[in-house]
Amino acid sequence: MLRYILLATTILSLCTADIYAQTRRRNTSRVWEGVTINPKIGPSLYMGDMVDKSNWRLTTGASVEKELLPWLSGRFEMTGGLLAGVMNAGSDIGFDTKYVDITLGATMFPVDLIGGYYNKRLVNPYVSLMGGFGIFNVKKNSDCTAAWAQAGDGNVLAPMVCGVLGAKYRINKNFGVNLEINGHLPFSDEIDGHNGWSPESAPDETTGAYMNWNDGKNDFYYTVMVGMTYKIQETQWRVSSNYNRKTYVKNRKAYKRNANRMRRR
Question: What is the pLDDT of residue 60?
Answer without folding.
Answer: 96
